[in-house]
Amino acid sequence: MNWQKFRNSWDNLISYSQALAVAVIALAATNVFFAVVLIGKVKNQKVIILPPNVNKEFWVSGDKLSSSYVEMMGNFIADKYLSVSPETAAYQHSLLFPFVAPSALPDFKKAMQQYEAFIAREGISQVFYPRSVSFGKNQILVSGILKKYVEGTQIKSEKATVLIKYTVRNGQFQLLSLEVKDNA
After folding, report:
1. Residues 30, 62: one domain?
2. Structural domain containing residue 140
3. Which of 74, 69, 77 is nearest to 50 (CA)?
């Protein structure tokens, strides 16, 4: 065997493998670069989502919501939560489930079932009339008048505020919790 010929072949193979290694590193770096660019584009993409009731123009961009969207969602959630009767409570509350964050859904369903049982046991029908909506970082306050009826007779009319805590993930509004505060 010719030592010089072997040495040349060996050197050629090493050069070839080094060139392939450089090419693989360059391709991997390019893939990482494009992945970062793609993630940036997805986060900044504006997605049009229709809330249940549309009466104002709104927008959703990444994890940011327009104030009109937050206001519409606050009114929708407060209405479905508080404007109930023994016959409609379960259905009204089920309309909220698609908006609940997956991590909060089991506790939310349990709380709704307890509230529905109370409404049925007491025979209460109630209507919530929103008067104002204010919001801050991941919370909405919907204030209004809550009128309660038993067998068609009004038993109470009081000021009430619904505190809605939420988060936004990938442009999707996700409800975390609801709390009613009586302001009477």
Report:
1. no
2. 50-182
3. 69
Spatial contact of 73 and 157, defined as CB atoms under 8 Å apart: no
Which tokens hold the place of 11?
């050197």
Check whether 26 has a pLDDT greater than 60: yes
Give the model confidence (pLDDT) of 139-165 as tens digits.
Answer: 999 999 999 999 888 999 999 999 999
* Residues 85 and 125 sit within 8 Å (Cβ to Cβ): yes
Provide the pLDDT for residue 36. Answer: 86
Is residue 63 domain-shared with residue 130, that is, in the same domain? yes
Domain containing residue 157: CATH number: 3.10.450.230
Read off φ and ψ for residue 178, nearest 5 degrees. -130, 145
Identify the band that residue 15 occupies on the pLDDT scale cut at 50, 70 and 90: confident
- Tokens 């504006």 belong to 46
DSSP 25-65: HHHHHHHHHHHHHHHHHHHT-EE----SS--S---EETTEE
* Total number of domains constituting the chain: 2
Token pair belonging to 149: 């009826």
